[in-house]
Specification:
9 strands; alpha+beta; two-stranded antiparallel ribbon; DNA Binding (I), subunit A
């Protein structure tokens, strides 16, 4: 480094020159500043066409695309996006319209589709698309299939209500998600106690015991649900805490009240 440069750095003249040049450039930018055409804020950069805000950039891009469209329309006689569209003709009324090539449409409206498929008498009030779809599904269900899956009919293993549903990978056993969740909770309680479990048909046990409480011998109320005192529940003859199993041969019908009084005791201990 030359000695003159060292002296300039030591006495601070280089920093003063740099600051002076920066101020001069800043003054030139402020003198050339012009407002943004969209929001009015000052733009100090001479090559900017908008201030850079997201709203202004979006407006500028829209205006630029519009200019390109108008230029293409003036030169070619059609809009720029028309080359990506095809012309379709309605097979019912003969009206032509433009659409995307991927859309293989045959009708210009739902009215023309209904008239072509069902006759002119459906022109007044054609059914909506969602209703026609439900009619097709109902027709398939009446024939015994919905898409490629057969329909099954049965009684819920927990509440006994009849249900109809499409066949899945497993044979349906419950009428609703609530019944399935309640039955899963019973099995989970037995697993927590370390008991042996099998699939339990609650409705079958009620019918087997003739809807009679095995503790007091009185009939249970079929329409009641817990926590009603006379509601039907299942009672483990040998309690799970005493090594009982969660199987149909260890379960009996009981009142909700009688089962609450019995707890984990045996009938001999209860009397």
């Amino acid at each position: 480094m030359r000695a003159s440069n060292k002296r300039r750095e030591v006495d601070g003249r280089a920093a003063a020159y740099a600051e002076k040049a920066r101020l001069r450039r800043e003054a030139e930018r402020q003198a050339d500043a012009r407002p943004c055409p969209y929001c009015g804020s000052l733009m100090t950069h001479k090559r900017r066409v908008q201030c850079g805000a997201p709203e202004c950039a979006k407006k500028h891009n829209t205006a630029n695309q519009r200019r390109q469209q108008l230029k293409h329309k003036a030169e070619k006689g059609q809009w720029l996006t028309d080359k990506y569209q095809v012309t379709r003709t309605c097979i019912q009324c003969g009206i032509t319209w433009k659409t995307r090539p991927a859309r293989n449409a045959k009708y210009c409206s739902n009215t023309c589709q209904a008239a072509y498929e069902h006759g002119p008498e459906r022109l007044v009030d054609p059914p909506p698309a969602w209703f026609r779809k439900k009619l097709r599904k109902a027709a398939k269900a009446a024939r015994g299939t919905r898409n490629t899956r057969p329909w099954v009919v049965g009684n819920c293993a927990r509440c006994g209500d009849p249900f109809t549903t499409a066949l899945t990978s497993d044979l349906p056993k419950y009428c609703s998600v609530q019944c399935k969740a309640r039955d899963s909770a019973s099995r989970r309680r037995a697993l927590t106690a370390g008991a042996k479990i099998t699939f339990v048909r609650r409705w079958y046990i009620y019918e087997r015991d003739r809807w009679t409480c095995h503790i007091c011998g009185d009939p249970v109320n079929r329409g009641a649900t817990a926590p009603d005192l006379d509601a039907p529940v299942l009672d483990h003859v040998i309690a799970l805490t005493r090594g009982g199993t969660h199987t149909e041969d260890n379960l009996r019908t009981a009142h909700f009240y009688c089962n609450s009084v019995k707890r984990e005791l045996d009938l001999a201990e209860l009397t």
